[in-house]
Amino acid sequence: MPSVVASGRKRPVNLTLSEDLVAQARSYTDNLSATMESLLEEYVARQQQERMDRQQLADACAADWNALHEAIGSFADEHSTL
């Protein structure tokens, strides 16, 4: 997966979260900010990987289509009225 840069300057942000969910999360961690940052890093890395995967698939599809066009020409060539 591509790396996500978590280092750098930190700043406070406002989030609106369910009170119940925050209370439950606090029972599992003493540092909610670090936990949220870690989860957000994982989410961003996963999204970046999915975007790269989609781009690679699109690139492969375009390469295959171009190879087919090079090999046999355009399907429209047989039906051109020009």
List the helices and strands and how they pair.
Elements: H1 19-26, H2 32-72
Q: Quick recap of the structure?
A:
This protein is mostly helical. It is built from 2 helices and no strands. It has a domain at 19-74.
Helix residue percentage: 55-70%
Q: Which stretches are poorly predicted, pLDDT < 50 over at least 5 residues?
A: none
| Quaternary structure type | single chain
Q: Helix count?
A: 2
Shape: rod-shaped
Question: How would you describe what is shown here?
Answer:
The chain is mainly alpha-helical and 82 residues long. The chain has a domain of 56 residues. The protein is built from 2 helices and no strands. The termini are far apart.
What key phrases describe this protein's structure?
82 residues, mainly alpha, 2 helices
